[in-house]
Amino acid sequence: MKNLIKIAIVEDNSDIQELLLDIFTTQKNFSVTGVFDNKTSALKNLPLSKPDIVLMDIGLPDGSGLECIKELKPRFPEIEFMVYTTFEDDKTVFEALEAGASSYILKRSKPEFIISAVKDLYTGGSPMNPDIARILVNRLFNNKKPNGASVLTQREHEIMKLLAEGNLYKEIAERLEISINTLKAHCYNIYQKLHVNNKTEAIIKVFGRN
């Protein structure tokens, strides 16, 4: 990966701050542009650090990280938000996605998974821990008639299912035996048909929520 990925961290636990800083400062493809330990500071100063990706804790001392995402994402759509939390219930997962997060990973994740997830998010993926993806899939596919599925081709619906499961672009391309560029073209067509801007909106519009 040639581009330097700029990362901001919103986390109030100093030990976890140090862990994340250690993970990313030892990698040549990453640059940490800001660390914020509360919602107020993040809302005010995070945009000034101009990150590509924000690792966002949910439980902050002065509010919810999801509220932070909900306020910042519409103002700075170019920033990708990765929820980094201990919460793994389906209600919180959906609230995070609807707030504007494109990724959801757990704090018990190994460093190599965190690094891989950030890289995948940077290149257009929606990485999640397998447990989170399973929660999402079970909730999404509980609906018998997916909303918006009728406008998609069989291949496009297959791609949406794989995206909802949390598969990486590379994994989907390999499974479908197509190139990543072809996969991205399919995704672009899906978003155009559904009148959405990203994978999260597409997943919710196609499969809905209970």
From TrEMBL:
Modified residues (4-aspartylphosphate): 57
InterPro entries, sorted: CheY-like_superfamily, NreC/VraR/RcsB-like_REC, Sig_transdc_resp-reg_C-effctor, Sig_transdc_resp-reg_receiver, Tscrpt_reg_LuxR_C, WalR-like
Residues of the Response regulatory domain: 6-122
The UniProt record lists the keyword Zinc-finger: no
Residue stretches making up the HTH luxR-type domain: 145-210
Keyword Cytoplasm listed: no
Keywords assigned: DNA-binding, Phosphoprotein, Transcription, Transcription regulation
The name this protein goes by in its record: Response regulator transcription factor
